[in-house]
Amino acid sequence: MGTLKAKIIGTGSYLPKRVLSNQDLEKIVETTDDWIVTRTGMKERRIAREDEFTSDMGADAARAALDDAGMSAEEIDFILVATMTPDYMCPSTSCLIQKAIGATKAASMDVGAACTGFLYVLATAKAFVETGLAKNVLVIASEKLSSITDYQDRATCVLFGDGASACIVSAAKERKGLELSGITLGCDGGQADILVIPAGGCRQPASNETVENRQHYVKMEGKEVFKHAVRRMESACKECLELAELQEQDISWLIPHQANIRIIDAMAKRFKHLPPDRIFKTVHKYGNTSASSVGIALDELLKQESLQKGERILLTAFGGGLTWGAAVLTSTGDV
Length: 335
Fold this sequence. Notes:
By secondary structure, the protein is α+β, with helices and mostly antiparallel strands. It folds into two domains: 7-175, Thiolase/Chalcone synthase (Peroxisomal Thiolase, Chain A, domain 1, 3-Layer(aba) Sandwich), CATH 3.40.47; 179-331, Peroxisomal Thiolase, Chain A, domain 1 (3-Layer(aba) Sandwich), CATH 3.40.47.10. Helix content is 32%, strand content 24%. It has helices at residues 22-26, 33-40, 54-69, 93-101, 117-130, 154-157, 208-212, 222-243, 261-268, 283-286, 293-304, and strands at 7-14, 18-21, 44-47, 78-82, 107-111, 136-144, 162-170, 178-187, 195-196, 219-220, 253-256, 312-319, 323-331. Helix 3 (54-69) crosses helix 4 (93-101). The relative contact order is 0.19.
């Protein structure tokens, strides 16, 4: 039978229609368009409707990925969902999406790795496919960050937006796609307190006090997060390239987590052989959409650019936990 090689054979994404611009934020908190653009690179972000949830956006992204792959939902045998904003604590968001898209033969589970979530579920899908535990895995990252954003905190409320991304991971030899040539993941739980949602879990269950103290929103130590993000993503990229036996010069595109333009630019300076126009950015349009950001950017890149056989994309992300990772995707044909 030979060694199974996991590859992405279809991608999709979904973004809510409502746009929240910097000018809109000027009316909500004490900030300015110039301040936001200078420090984050963000001009607008998308916000889900009140009746639009993480599972809804994930299902829409999943349908787009299935269409791109030319597959039906019944061909999926496993669904993996990365999110830090699930519809419920129980049941899992992946179960809700399984029903929504009609993937009646699929098992499912959620994975929590904050902004690195897309890479964590991608790695899990690769393991399932290459060990023969699944044939076609639907990978989804979906976030309704507006539900955990404190719009009284100007340091964080300008950063986050909503959205979802998805891809189909398969070992089908006859299909062209993006082979998962190498993935590396990391974690440092010793830094868990610099990016956290304090209440809502068993440590601080919801109460009048936790609600009044706004403890159900994201709390972040921005300077510390910045420092770790740049260093961890750079090291993850180098480790991943080494694992794949590649050099920086072998990479055609870099897609970093769309957290902040300063983080992206600081990352870019670490890549001496990659031109600035080969670092793909969506942060100005969508802000930080956490787990879904890398997948949204990947879907946009593939829709805009024609990849030739052998071209490679390097993905990297960093998030709360702390978590981080990187992955190399190699085109197996014109994509």
